[in-house]
Write a structure and sequence with these properties.
The protein is of the alpha+beta class. The chain contains three helices and four strands; from the N terminus they run αβαβββα.
Length: 196
C-alpha cells in the first residue's frame, strides 16, 4: 500500500512554542481589522476604476469633439466652395441686368423727391448713351417737373447725373456693383484664410 504523506504538508520542523490563544475580543478585533482592510482595498479599487473611466470618457469626448469640429470645417468649406460659382454668377450676370432694369424706377423716385424739395424748377438728366432709351421711356407726361435728357460719353453704363437748382445727384450702379463684387470676393478670400 502506498502512503499519501507526500501530498500533505509537513509541520514537524516547526518548534513548539507558546500556544496561541484567541479570546472573543481579539478574534473580533482581527475580524474587524480584516474587514477594514478588505473594505479599504475595495474602495481603492473603485476609485481607481472610476478615475480610469473618467479619463477614458474625457479622452473619448475630446476625440469626438475634434472629429466633429473637423467635420464641421470640411462641411463649411465644401458649402462655400459650391456657393462661390453661384454668387460669382449672380454678381457678374444677374445683378447688372437687375440694376439696369431698376434704373428707371430709381430715377423716377428721385424726380418725385426733387419736385417736393425744389418745386417746378427744370431738371436736367445726364447719362451714358447706352442709358438714353431707358431714361426717355421713363419720361411721361405725368412727371411733376420739366425734364431734359442729355447724353455724355464720359459717363459709364449705369451712371446718371440729375441736376436741379444748382445741385447734382448721382446714380452710379457701376460703383454699387463694383462694391458688391469686392464684398463677395473679400468674403471668400477671408473664409479661405480661416479654413486654411
Amino acid at each position: 500500500m502506498m502512503s499519501i504523506g507526500h501530498l500533505l504538508e509537513d509541520y514537524s520542523d516547526f518548534k513548539s512554542g507558546a500556544p496561541v490563544t484567541l479570546t472573543d475580543v481579539s478574534l473580533e478585533e482581527r475580524r474587524l481589522a480584516a474587514f477594514e482592510s478588505g473594505y479599504q482595498a475595495g474602495w481603492d479599487d473603485c476609485l481607481k476604476a472610476q478615475s480610469e473611466n473618467s479619463l477614458r470618457v474625457s479622452s473619448d469626448l475630446a476625440q469626438n469633439l475634434h472629429e466633429l469640429s473637423f467635420t464641421y470645417q470640411e462641411a463649411y468649406a465644401s458649402i462655400l466652395k459650391s456657393l462661390q460659382p453661384l454668387l460669382r454668377g449672380m454678381v457678374d450676370a444677374v445683378l447688372p441686368h437687375a440694376a439696369q432694369a431698376t434704373l428707371g424706377s430709381r430715377i423716377s423716385e428721385m424726380l418725385h423727391e426733387l419736385a417736393k424739395e425744389h418745386g417746378q424748377q427744370p431738371v436736367q438728366i445726364v447719362t451714358a448713351p447706352s442709358n438714353m432709351t431707358a431714361i426717355e421711356e421713363l419720361l411721361t407726361d405725368d412727371l411733376p417737373i420739366p425734364v431734359t435728357v442729355n447724353s455724355e460719353t464720359s459717363l459709364g453704363d449705369g451712371q446718371v447725373l440729375i441736376r436741379i437748382a444748382g445741385t447734382e445727384r448721382e446714380v452710379d450702379l457701376s460703383a454699387v456693383l463694383a462694391e458688391i463684387d469686392r464684398s463677395v470676393t473679400g468674403f471668400f478670400e477671408e473664409n479661405q484664410k480661416d479654413i486654411a
